[in-house]
Protein: DUF4307 domain-containing protein
Amino acid sequence: MAEPQTRRARIGATVAMAAVAVAITAVVLWLTVDWRDEGVRAALHSWQEPVDDTMPVTIEVDRPPHTTLTCDLIARDVRFVVVGQVSVEVPAGGERRQRIDALIPLRGDGIAPELEGCTASR
Structure:
């Protein structure tokens, strides 16, 4: 009767080691992708009430000056439905930290903008 418990213990240890290996691999991959962004950061800085079916927004980007960014902005209504979207290109050059003004065209009553993210290209 001692043998089944030993076999179960080996199976449990094997499963635990496999889970740890998968977790370590996932962390290494995540860190690799995270470090590859070369310090690109972007955030929604401010926005204003919609004017003429557009929502004025300002984003703040922090990136190496040689990097071009494409930032995707959306606007949502009171029910969280996307009612506007725009892609804004931040050209290479200039200061590392910049504030960029953009207009999100609206197809409804937008009340809140979101910065979905920015992708870098050289």
Remarks:
- The domain at 41-121 is CATH 2.60.40 (Immunoglobulin-like).
- The mean pLDDT is 87.
